[in-house]
Amino acid sequence: MATNGKNPLYQLLDQGQSVWLDSIQRKQIQSGELKQLIDTMALRGETSNPSIFEKAILHSSDYDEDIRTGNAQGKSAAEIFEKLSTDDVRAACDVFRPVYDQTNGGDGFVSIEVSPHLAHDTQGTIDEAKRLWQTVNRPNLMVKIPGTQEGVPAIEESLYQGLNINITLLFAVKAYEQVAWAFIRALERRVAEGKPITNIASVASFFVSRIDTLADKWLEDAAKASSDPQRYEELRDLQGKVAIANAQIAYARFKEIFSGVLWQKLGAEGGHVQRPLWASTSTKNPAYRDVLYVETLIGPHTINTLPLDTIRAFADHGVVKRTIDADPQAAHDIIRRFEAAGFSLDAVTDQVLKEGVEKFNEAFDQLLAGIEKKRAAIT
Fold this sequence. Notes:
Layout: H1 8-14, E1 17-21, H2 26-30, H3 33-41, E2 43-46, H4 50-58, H5 64-72, H6 77-102, E3 109-113, H7 122-136, E4 141-146, H8 151-160, E5 165-170, H9 173-192, E6 202-207, H10 209-225, H11 229-238, H12 242-257, H13 261-268, E7 275-279, H14 292-295, E8 302-306, H15 308-317, H16 328-340, H17 345-378
Helix pairs in contact: 4-17, 5-6, 5-17, 6-17, 7-8, 8-9, 9-12, 10-11, 10-17, 12-16
């Protein structure tokens, strides 16, 4: 695929980074807009989650006819939603299939998520991931599984069974390491049994801005409460830096894990590395540059999944250079300073993981309630 030096999104491809669209809409797929975005904005994949589908289904009439049909067939709200979501994801997979083929399975994936209520249910996650995989029935599908403690064995087993897996809701570097090793174990099991690994793909979705949202609040509250001007300046200076440093440290671990002896053996068997995917990278704080979490996380073998507004902003004024590992020591210094100031990064990542699961549960429940409401109105 040709690059276009005039568009920073194409320049990211030269750096080894792919941009995925962090939304899915039926109208966008059917109108040809998604195909146009692939051609003009260098899109290489797409992701979905309960919050995205809630907005798509409940805030448009695009799905009403299918809801009416599902209702007439006696389907529950959950069954109707699964039909709506798998139909959309299958259609999006077909739009991205040329990208998948042209990159030899390196890109062109569309993600669908297991029910967030299964975040702490290992077997339930395995069963639902397999059902979604079989229902969509496309080689460029990725099934999203949360990187909780209960999710790790489900991730390994699903990969071993031959599913492409997108691990979501990763915040802590330790959690990232666990899913990276789960990926390697799954491939090792397949190789030991003579099964191919060349067609197994996985990404580890490491969330960014949510960490700053919480860390910045703690830093701001402490700064306001401080009577020491030096401490005040130190706390203010750390704002907007913790999440980026955390992601950069995770990338350093990625490079270590996927250059070791174990991976070299799997790579020789045709295995593809499990790429870090930067998620939650739209800027939440209006005081920050709108492409902050794109420009600071650019590097090889990575993905950044962005809402359309951020994609357009980066196409307009994004600055492209390799930044993800430009100064590894500086990233460690930021975390050291954060903890020396009296805060715990583990406490931050634990809280945002808990909140992330809860937010997806709430969005999923609101989605099902909204479908029920539409069913009642149709009836």
